[in-house]
Amino acid sequence: MIRGIGIDIIEMDRIKQSIKRKPRLIQRILTEREYQRFKDLNERRQIEYAAGRFAAKEALAKSLGTGIGSLSFQHIEILSDGKGAPSMKVQGFENLHIWLSISHSTTHAVAQVVLEER
């Protein structure tokens, strides 16, 4: 049974400018494992990666109906499988199957989350 859906879109330039103004922001958004992957990317891919993860975490919060204020970005981790498909793990919500899609254009990143009861 579907428990919730959420979607979020963000401008790449907004993330890029935010990271330039506050370099530590990236470590607030990304978990340690996400950050390790981020460091291995070139600048363009770093912005796409960060924007996609930010949008996905916001979409999750919307799907839960809570907003990001009641969750921490650090409790939400998005890793990719060998083919690049993202999967999301959320502390405290292990009873849910989380369907996640992230996409990018040259100017925006978008993510959609569907929560399903296990």
What would you say this structure looks like, in words?
The protein is of the alpha+beta class and 118 residues long. It has one domain: 4'-phosphopantetheinyl transferase domain (Ribosomal Protein L22, Chain A, Alpha-Beta Complex). Helix content is 38%, strand content 33%. It contains 4 helices and 5 strands, in the order βααααββββ. The chain has a 3-stranded antiparallel beta sheet with strand order 1-5-4. The chain has a two-stranded antiparallel sheet with strand order 2-3. A hairpin with a 5-residue loop joins strand 2 and strand 3 (86-90). Helix 1 packs across helix 4. The longest helix has 22 residues, at 43-64. 25% of the residues are buried. The model has no long low-confidence stretch (mean pLDDT 94).
Unreliable segments of 5+ consecutive residues:
none
Q: How are strands sequenced across the largest beta sheet?
A: 1-5-4
Please, what is the average pLDDT? 94
Shape: globular
GO cellular component, one term: cytoplasm
EC number: 2.7.8.7
Function: Transfers the 4'-phosphopantetheine moiety from coenzyme A to a Ser of acyl-carrier-protein.
Binding site for Mg(2+): 8, 58
Helices, strands, pairings?
Elements: E1 2-11, H1 12-21, H2 25-29, H3 32-39, H4 43-64, E2 76-80, E3 86-90, E4 96-104, E5 108-117
Antiparallel strand pairs: 1-5, 2-3, 4-5
Helix pairs in contact: 1-4
Provide a short characterization of the protein structure.
Helix 1 crosses helix 4.
